[in-house]
Every structure is written in structure tokens, then in C-alpha cells.
Amino acid sequence: MAKASTKSGAVAERRPALAGREIAAAAVRVAVLPPAERISLRAPAGSVSALSKALGLTLPTKPKTSASKGGRTALWLGPDEWLVIDEAGKSPVADCAPVKALHSAVDISHRNVALAVTGSGAEATLSAGCPQDLSLAVFPVGAATRTILGKVEIVLLRTAPDAFRVECWRSFSDYVFEFLGEAAHDAAA
Amino acid sequence: MAGTYRIGNAGRLTPARTARFTFDGKHYTGLEGDTLASALLANGIHLVGRSFKYHRPRGILSAGAEEPNALVSVERDAARRTPNVRATVQELYDGLAANSQNRWPSLAFDVGAVNDLASPFFSAGFYYKTFMWPKSAWKSFYEPNIRSAAGLGVSPDQPDPDHYSSRFAHCDVLVVGGGAAGLTAAVAAAQAGASVILCDEQAEFGGALHFEKGAQIDGQDGWSWAQATAAKLAAMPNVRLLPRTTAFGYYAQNFVALTERATDHLASPDRTAPRERLWQVRAKRVVIATGAIERHMVFADNDRPGIMLASAARTYLNHYGVAVGRNVAVYTANDSAYFAAIDLKKAGVNVAAIIDVRDAPSGAAVDEARSLGIEILPGRAVVKANGKLRVSSVMVEPKTGGASRTIECDALLVSAGWTPSVHLFSQSRGKVAFDADTQRFLPGTYAQDCVSVGACAGTDGLEATIAEAIQAGSDAAGKPGKTLKITIKAQEGWTGGMLGAAPGPGTTVKAFIDFQNDVTAKDIRQAVHEGMRSIEHVKRFTTNGMATDQGKTSNMHGLAIAAETLSKPIPQVGLTTFRAPYTPVTFGAIVNHARGNLFDPTRKTPIHPWAEAHGAVFEDVGQWKRAWYFPEAGEDMHKAVDRECVTVRKAAGMFDASTLGKIEVVGPDAAKFMELLYTNPWEKLEPGRCRYGIMLREDGFIYDDGVVGRLAPDRFHVTTTTGGAPRVMNHMEDYLQTEFPHLNVWLTSITEQWAVIAVQGPNSRDIIAPLLEGIDLSDEGMPHMSVREGKICGVPTRLFRMSFTGDRGFEVNVPADYGQSVWEALWAEGRKYGACAYGTEAMHVLRAEKGYIIVGQDTDGTVTCNDAGLDWAIGKKKTDFVGIRGMKRPDLVAPGRKQLVGLLTKDPKIVLEEGAQIVADANQPVPMKMIGHVTSSYWSENCGRSIALALVAGGRDRMGQTLFVPMPKGVIEVEIGSTVFFDEKGERLNG
Amino acid sequence: MLLIRCPYCEEELPELEFRNAGEAHVVRSSHLADVSDQDFEEFFFIRTNPKGIIYERWRHIHGCARFFNAVRDTVSDKFLMTYKAGEPKPLLVSEPAKTAPAKPKAAAKPRSRKGDA
Lengths: 189, 991, 117
Fold this sequence. Notes:
Chain C: InterPro entries: SoxD (IPR006279), SoxD_sf (IPR038561). The structure holds three protein chains of three kinds. Chain A is an alpha+beta fold.
């Protein structure tokens, strides 16, 4: 068999889930966010500073917090786990690759789909299916957590008093989108 | 006028705002703000239903949620038909259509009422005694007849077109009940800065202030104060007011479930709005202010329409402006009923007499009634009510016996006193305590962070209630707020009350205690005489308190009669446990969003749209939709699968394997971890190579399997079964975190990061080659069971050379969003080489032809590696892995275990049924000794015959034996053979 | 729905995010392959199933994903405390003497957290 090269010239096209979908209700807008680069970063405490340096932001070490810088956000998901999202087109995988300190950086850019829930009814919309207390006092701007929405798991990040980023696995995005749609229409109450 | 019994100047509704409605098809007019019950009463209608067991005519007992009698069906349209709606709770709207239940042919003439005449046969425990014999009659006679007679109301026969929503809420203080106590507690808590939710089951806040005219609070009458207070609360940003909302369940750690009825009171509700909303509230502290429920008097024929609770008659008059009769009598053991007589008398209604079982009632209310010229008959009892469809008179006798007197009346107001509503307190696991002085159960020991205030706590009098509520509210807020001062200028004083049957003949008459289940005082006594000692037994034997009203008006009466009959004090007989829900809850509210598409997530692969566009038939695999087969024009499933199977082996096939579980195992100890989690050896697997791995549970049985590729010394790409993905991940995390935490390795689910396209068949290499960059596809460069990273169609790929068909094959992993595009490119190449798309059914057949097992189909959680013929996959030199000891248990190594074998039917055309049992001797008597069962069975077009896999006891020692599969249509002969039916030497892997 | 304090998230969170994982402090032998049938039976099949205080494992599966241990009263369904995997089994005052005391543990980093008693 010959050495491989693209003889056909075919170039794959990216087709994100839910592309272009949006829900506009009286008090809430649910929009699908564009694709982003993401890694699941796992590391012991001793590697945090080296990885922070490589990623260009300080990895948060407090539960339910996140850190954001230059279009890149790191969400604390567990004591040795972060979700790093890069919306500026830079690759966190590549940034972690040279780090010698113990860690695991796995590309999950395509695993997750992100939705923005914004508006005065955003908190009520999420409270239709999320059992956590999402009031500003308990879940302030920047708060991040893995949790439940209805029957599926999500990652929730508060980006503003009336705005949340919801991340879920790709195949659950239909469910999450439809759930948020129903909830958004009931969010005025 | 909206009804001839409507009284001018009484009530709080606006006479001009009428609402039309129908009851049993007849047209009536009521007022906005009416309940169906008040509107019916305004039109002089008391008869609204028939009782469940005896079909006795029944009227309206109460003005609230405790109503046992006035259950009707409300029909908005064909799909919106709600049975068993309490007329006392249903708010009137223009166009409301209600029908009575449990009657045929009509409410006034009901054939089922024959049960009333036959009632001596239907005594307590009737069901338990009567249907015992003959045994054969149960199925043919008793059950069908009981079923047709059972149940109340007719359930709708169409899907519920409404939708329901849900909300989790968190607050510092949840106040349940919006009467004087609840409103006050809410204000006190809110002023101290607490976040407060206040709910009340009624449309308007006020509770007993709906009827209690004698209250003067903060210089206003009680009702006006309540409305002003509610308005004040509504304006506070830290308060959420929920009217029409019932707290129906009190669960652990102050988790309280509420249902809000959002649209049932509207004439033309917005259909995009939910009909009901389920609130799941977590409160730091709960204030229970649920009030008390009035009890009726227990005497002969006390269920006649027109007999109702005194407080209800007062509510109908003072709130709705409706007189419940023109000539009413009162029968009471409590002062509170006097206020009903006084209010009615003042409104111009004739009060025939107040019959009081107490010998010398006294106090302000008694004095006022007397001064209004109302005849008071103390020390007397009503021994019978006359009138069938409506009370017409009552027979009154001195308690001690003597001459009876008949008093004409068209309504009889009754009160045996008040039962504190300790339902929610009891649900919270608090223990009630019996207060002997006042003969009532009150909150005793608290189990959760909650407090009861007002009537539900046994606090009598408005002044004491308000003081208690202020304290509870500010305590609940945790910090003192603005000092709340509420002045009480006037309040009603109520004393008295009785439990159990009133004096009078008790042995033969029907003196009802539980109206909804038709339980009489006599039934309770009989239960005791037949040996029931505990109230739990009495309850079940008589069904007292077991109807949908949960005995809100009847429990205490039943308990008192049982105690009296047993000659025991009430606490020794015990109180049955209160359970959620407090009032019936719709399934809609409980299910809320989880209907239709949201019932369960439907997971689709990135390639799903292509499969759909190409006519795939899908099957459900867990939550996934997987392409099952791709029929071409004129093909049925059988033909499509045959074609797909043949095409794969002849040319090539493409299969969407994206649903396979995938886990990336990363870290310097990755191989060590793999050694511990899988039976196989991994340390020596070279990067770039793959291995089929088997995972056991600690019990030694096969848990999962899959191909694992080593991408680098510290990085493995593990695949799992589709269905096993989440539990395998959990299993691995469990061992990593708790048994092997010393290992430096991490697990990440990458199931959904990668779309997986299996390209299988002799032409597979030619199909993928033109699209690849940087990967040498020669057999030397990329042998069977190897993995490479490179690019396909310009995007990253992890390319596996592996086969689940037995033919040369590849699995192309690409980032999910590229999955469909790469599939399309491969499809274009594949068409040049005669490839087809194939689904899960062909995949199953092709792997069975090779004897490859499917975990969960050929194994069932009790199959060992040895049973499955997979001993080769166990690393013999390993000293530890999960399952290493379990698999050596005596029973797991004993001879005679079921082993996986191939089965060939003697008639090659017969396809066995999966799950069919196998016997050695088809002529043995039934029940036969079963020695195995079929796990997989298909028609194999490639083999030109049927093939099957089976687990058979000692199967590998039975090669060539003939066994039998007895089926309803005859016995099928089978021969045991190898599990590999096609290409036994495995030459096609490189073919 | 219970509230469970996750020792890693340092917060009480709704039960929906958690999953029970069976009894805690069951020791998996470091030489499991060689244990007797009886020892394996003890290890694999026998559980205390007490009425009262139970030591059990939970996983904050839809949260930080950590396994941890909890002490719960099976009668009241109340959590008495939760603690991280690997921390020693706490001794509670209210606990009947029968299940205590635990053996003194070695100072070295435990190989097994689940089995750490």
C-alpha cells in the first residue's frame, strides 16, 4: 500500500450541534454559542502553578469558582479537575503539552456544546431543572459547578448577574436546548 | 341576581360581574370570585353528588380543601376532563361546565342507590369476608363487578394537552398557610430581612378571616387587614407570594413540595402557560400556619344534603354573600357555630334553633344569639335528619332521653369543634402529642427546623396567635427586625367541642364519620368487636380516612369511637400517620417537564442526520438512537440485513460506531492501572498497538469488554460497550479513587469527543486510503490490531485497524463535529468500491458469524471468562486485577457450568428464538430439565443457513451432540459445534 | 431530597447530584488473589446493614465526581458527618461500643482508601 496522502482533496466541514438555534422568550434568551477549544485538565496540587503558567491564567483551587483571562476560562470542577474553555481560538492542549509536571490534558472541544442563557429570567429558567441554589448571594458571577438540569448533567457558569453559560455533552444538547426552551417560557413567574 | 340565595349587602363579590356555568347540563349564573360550591348554593343547589359505596345523595359539607362530598367532574373540552374536583375549591369562571359523578341515570334518581337498601350486607370488612368463596368466582364474577363499581369519577381518555412546569426554590423562611398567623409570620420574617415564600391553597390570603367577622386588627376588619398585609408582602423584593398553592409534602431537611394551580380558575387560559407548577422548596426554616378544620356532628343520617359545617355556612355568607338556606338550624358542641347563627340571623335568615349537646353553654356568643331571639336548646341531641335529597327537618331529643321534637329546616349547620391541621407537621416526622384538656392532637416533638403557629399549634384566640406568629417570624429570620406591632381590638372566643358519636341511637342507624368512604360510627364499633385493636387495623378494616380527603373531617371521630369501644384513652389507641400528599396532586405536576421529548433524553450521533436521510430504521440502545438497517426500495428488514451482511464481506460496509463508550486513560501509571482493571496484560503492549480487553467485577464475572489502543506509554484509548459506558467509567473511577489512589493516572470520558466510522470488508483499505494523511496503511505499517494518529480529510483522526466482522477493517475516529462530513467523504469513496451502509442488526449477524460475543447479550452478569471461552484473555502471570479472586470461587470453577457454544439447527432454515431453552431429552415429562439457553440467533446469508450461540451446561464437552429446543409448535433439533461459523482460520482479517 | 455535604466541595448540595456507593471501610486485601474462601466471602458478600449508624460511601457523581465517606443514621436518615476518602473512620460518641474501636492504622500513605480503617 502506498504512503498515504490526501489524493481526493476532500476537506471535512465542521457541523456543530444545534448550530444557529435560538429561543427568545419574554424574559430570557437561549442561544447556542460558537464552537470553542476545550480540555479536561486533571492534575495534582503540585502541578497547578506550572499549568497556570502554561495556560496564562491562574487555575482556581476553590470549589465552585472559575478564573478567566483573554478569552480563556478555567472552571473548578473537582479538587484535581478543571474545564478549560478557550473562545479565542488558541489551543489549551498545545499549551499544556510541554508541561513536565504531572497532569492529564484531554481535548474535549467537540464533546461539549455550550448555550448562553441570558435575561432577567435566566436564573428562573435554570431553576426549572437545577436543584442548586442559584441566587446571586450563593452562586455569584464567576461561580461554576457541574450539576443537574432535568435528567442530564451540565456544567454551569454564571457569566453575569443575569447570564449563564451551560455546557453539556453533544448528544444531550437537544434535550438541554428543549428543556431550557420550555423553562424559558415559564420564567416570568 | 346571580342566584336566588344571594344576599344583598353580604359578601365581598361584585354583583355586576357575573359568570355563567352549567351543572349536569343546566345553565346557572354565579359571580366572579365564587367557587363552584358557592355558585351552586347561591342557586339553591345542595345535592351535588352520590356517595361512593351506598350512592347516598350528598351535598356540600365544607368551604375548603377538606371537602369529602362535593366531588364533581369539570370538563373544559374532550381532553380536559378532570374528575373528582372539589366544588369547594374549584373557582368559578365564565363557561365552566361541571357534572355530578357516581350516579345513573341521574343525580336525583340513581339506580346504584339500591346499595343503600342493601347496606346491611356491605358492612365493614365486607370485601374481606364476602369475596373469599367460591374461589373460582373471583376472576369471572367478583373482580369484573368490583372493578366496574370501583373508583369515583371517569378519567379522561385522551392525552393531557396541558403542560406543567417545575421550579426549584430556596429561601430562608417558608410560611405555609396565609391566614392571620401565616401573614403575620411572613411579615415579621421579611421585615427582618429574610427571604420568604408564603403559600396558601386559596385564591386569596386570609384563611379563617374569610368568615371570621368578629376580628378587628390594626383598626381594620380582619379581612381588610389580611388583604392589606398581602399587598404589603407582595411589594417586598425578598418575598414571594404563592396563592392557589398547596404545600402537599414535607420531606427531609425542610424540603417541601408545593403545587401551584396557575390556570384552572381562568375562563380562557393562555395555553402556552403551564396549568400547574411544581415548586420544590428548600427552606432554612418552615413556619407551619395551616389552621384547623371543623368537625361535623355524628348522628343518624347526618349526610343529608343541606347539612354542612357551621364555618362553611359562615364563609358562604360572609365571603360569597350566599345564604345556605332560608330556615336554618344549628347543631353544635362548640361556641363557634353560634357565630354562624348570629351572622345568618343578622343577614335576615331565619334561624329555627340552636341545638347544643352541652348542658349549659355560656359566653358572649351564646348571649348574643339569645338576645337576637334565637331559640337555644341545650343538653339536647339531633337524633335523626329527615329529607332524602335535602334535609327538611331534624328530630331533637334531650340527651338523657325523653320526648322528641321535630324542627323544620332547609339547612342544618353543624360543629363538633376544631381539629388542628397537624398534617404537615406529622409529615415532617414530628411527633404529635394528645392534649387531654382540649381533646386534640398537637405538635409535640419537632424533627426538623420548623415551628407551628396559630390554630394548627392549638393556639386559641387571635391575639395569642398573632403574638406567636410575630415571634416565629422573627425567630425564623434569625435576627430581630423592625419590631412588628399588631393590635387586636376584637376577637371571637371559641370553646367547647366533642369527639365521636353524638348522643342518640347508635347501633342501627347510619351516622357517618367518613363521608367519602361511607364509614359509619357503627362500622368502627363493629371493627373493634371483630378484634381490631390498633387504629391502624380499624382504619384498614373500615377504610376510615382512606379516601382522597384522607379523613380530614373524620379521623378524630373514628379514633374517639374506637377508643370508647375499647374503653381505652385516645392516645393508647393511637393516631394514624399523615402522609403526603395533603390533597390530591395531578400526575402532570409531578411529571412536569418530563413528557414527550423531555421524558428521557434521546441521544443521537453526529452521523444521525445522514442515516435518517438515507432511510435508516433506528433502534433504541439505551438512550441512543442507532441505525438498525438501511432498507432499499422494496426491501423488508430481512432482505436489507442479508444484503448488508453479504456486501460487507464481498466489498465493504460502513457502520456508525460513535455510541461506543470511550475513555482516555492518561498518566505515568496508566498501564499499571489498566493491569488492575482488565484481566489482560498491558505493560508490554507497545504504543501503536491494540488489544481486546475484558473487565470483570470483583465477583469474577464479565462486566464489559472492548478494544484498547495504546497511543503512547502514558496514554490509552479505551473503548467500552455502548450501554456500559457510564457504569464502566464509574467502576474505573471507584477503583482509582478509593483502591488505587497511589497511581498517577486520570480518566476522561471521550465518548462524545470522537465520532467513529467503522469501515469493514475487503475493500476497506482502498476506501480510506485516499482521504488519509501521514499513516502507512500497509499490513506491515499498520497490522491488524493497531492504532495510528494522523489526519483524514484534513482533520485529526485516531485510526484503529480492528475488526468486529472478521474481515479486514478500520475504525476511523474523528472529532464529533466532523463526523458526518468525513462519513460523506468515505461514503463517496465507498460507493466506488461497492460499499454499503450497514446497521446494528447486520453488525450483530457479522460478529456472530465469527463467534464474537456481545457483553449483555451472550453474557448476563453470571458468565466467567472461562464460560465464554475467553480464558486466553487473562494474564496468567498477573498477581492482582479486579475479579482475580472472585473468578476462582468454588462455584465458578466447578464442572458443569454453562459454556458458550455454537448451535446449528438440523434444519438449516429454522432460526431459533433468542432465549429459547435447551434440553437433552425432548421426551422427558414436563417440567423438563433445562440445560441451557440460546443467547444469539440469526439467519446468516453468508453461511446460507441459520446460526446461533448458546450457553449450555458442560457445552464444550458436548461437541457434536444433538440437543433439543422445545417450542410451542414442536421440538427443534440442534447440534452443538464451534462458536465460529465463518472463516474459521481467520484469514480474512488480512484479506 | 436530602442535602449532602460534599467534603471536597465544602458545601451542602442536593442529593440529585450524588450516588450511594455502598458500605465504607471494607478492606480489599493487597494480596486478594491468595485469600481464603471465607475471607473472600467476608470481604465481598457480608455487609453490616445496621439499624442506626452506618458508614457508607457516596460519590458526588454529578458534581466534583469524588468518592467520599459519610456517617448516616438509617433510622432518622440524617447525615452525621461526611469526610474525604482515605481519612480514618471517625468514632462517634453516640455509636454503640460493638462496632468500635477501629484498629490503629499505620502511619504510611494508605494503599487503599476504601479499606482504610
